[in-house]
Amino acid sequence: MIVFAVDASPPRLDTDDLARIADRLRRLRPLDSILDDIGDVIADQDPPAAEAPELAERLRADLVRLENVAVAAEDRDPRVAALLRRARTLRATDLPATAHPATVAHLRRLAGVAEALLKRLAETGTLRACA
């Protein structure tokens, strides 16, 4: 009989690792900020054209964050999977450089998927519901 000894203790973190983790935690936006980004897009008034690129980047980052949560939690809900596929497609699509209405439409698609994904992740228990 062969017996293997396995060290179950977590790896030790050095000062650089801890500093990197602390920096990431400081830069991490709360999940409620995703709702703020969604609200900026689906409000009654269209976002200004000058803010569209930054807003698109924030929404893309929001979608990546929600995808990371779903993957880490191993959420296997088919609706979550479909929303994640839609999110990946939208993230890969460039912001239209033509007329502002096309830009707003793209921002609203990004926000709509983010909102639906946030809601579904709350429904599946992957996230607790945001106010």
Which stretches are low in confidence, meaning pLDDT under 50 for 5 or more residues running? none
Distance between the termini: 57 Å
Radius of gyration: 19 Å
The mean pLDDT is: 87
* Structural class by secondary-structure content: mainly alpha
**What's the helix-strand series?**
HHHHH
Question: Shape, please?
Answer: globular
Output the number of helix runs. 5
Largest sheet: none
Number of β-strand runs:
0
Residues in helix, %: 55-70%
The fraction of residues assigned to DSSP E strands is under 5%
Organism: Streptomyces albidoflavus
InterPro entries: DUF6415
Protein name: DUF47 family protein
Pfam families: DUF6415
Please tell me about this protein's structure.
Helix content is 64%, strand content 0%. The chain is built from five helices and no strands. The longest helix is centred in the last third of the chain and has 24 residues, at 100-123.
Compact overview of the structure:
InterPro entries: DUF6415. The chain has 131 residues and is mostly helical.
Chain-wise SSE layout:
Blueprint: H1 15-27, H2 32-42, H3 52-72, H4 78-92, H5 100-123
From the structure above, extract its key features:
DUF6415; 5 helices; DUF47 family protein; mainly alpha; 131 residues; globular; 64% helix
